[in-house]
């Protein structure tokens, strides 16, 4: 009896141990499965991140390449535009001196139904700008009478210069001079002459200016005034 009871106990103990091992195995399996799923999710996330980064990076490079291609195309392209220009009522268009307005070959200018345009001169596109010269004007005959005056000079050496007396005649038929003047003239080193007025019509000037090294009163005595009748 004792032996049979011990055998049942051993069998139950062995089964219990087997069940415990089975549960432990299931727990390990679940744990490993969870770890594998977590690792797979982490790997999938990393893969998605790498894919997204590569897509963004590749998109930026693609956009840059497209921009460079557009720039090169615009540099080589010839753009042609069409349109019309209208001026407001009362507007005035003026050109700077020497300015020109030219149309490209095949260009066309269209005016409104009731235009008000004043063209002073038409210049072609190939024309060389000409330099405008004033038209010669015919001399205008003067109706005033031409009068010829005569001056006779009398010179007397004095000091380093000369005392010059001028007799002014209004005509060649005049016997006495209309007026007279006298001055002292002295040449300078720069090929010019220094003139000092001495008197008029036989009288010494009241405001006679002084000169260094020249006796102007003595020079006045050498004035040759007209003495005839």
Summarize the structure.
The chain is 35% helix and 16% strand.
Task: Please explain how this structure is put together.
- This protein is an alpha+beta fold and 229 residues long.
- 35% of the residues lie in helices and 16% in strands.
- It has a 5-stranded antiparallel beta sheet with strand order 1-2-3-4-5.
- It is elongated.
- It starts with a helix and ends in an 8-residue tail after the last helix.
- The mean pLDDT is 77.
Q: How are the SSEs placed, and which strands pair?
A:
Layout: H1 2-76, E1 150-158, E2 161-169, E3 179-187, E4 193-200, E5 203-204, H2 216-221
Antiparallel strand pairs: 1-2, 2-3, 3-4, 4-5
Largest sheet, order of strands side by side? 1-2-3-4-5
Whole-number mean pLDDT: 77
Shape: elongated
Please give the number of β-strands: 5
Structural category is alpha+beta
Protein traits:
229 residues, five-stranded antiparallel β-sheet, 35% helix, elongated
